[in-house]
Fold:
Amino acid sequence: MSDPVLTRAALLTLEEAVHTARYLQNPQSYAVKFALAYLHSIQPSDRRVFDDFWRALSEGSVSRGIALENSHRAIHAHLRIPHRDEDMWIVWRATFERLTTITGQGKKNPYRQGEAPPAPQSKPEVQ
Structure:
């Protein structure tokens, strides 16, 4: 049985890696390795989705962001845990703030330095 708090933390770690990869060349870390290993232990059937995510982190191509997003969503599907858009926006904003402060790359963003775009308005639920 998996710990829901640890599972959420591991998924948020991968979310942060996806967003960090937009600003840094190779955001591979022990935290990401641990998160991938832990998540694989929850559903140990096929490692491919986890390996694809790790490989996508080290790619230097322009399509790395797309590969990471696809791999990240594949991990959610593999674990049968829905991807939460709220988490994506919270982590993206925090990562953007942290990295633009450290690297000064906020000038390359269409928003003012240190300012992340607002989260989209929630969509009305279809009944």
In short: The chain has five helices and no strands. Confidence is low (pLDDT under 50) at residues 106-114. Helices lie at 4-20, 30-42, 48-58, 64-79, 85-103.
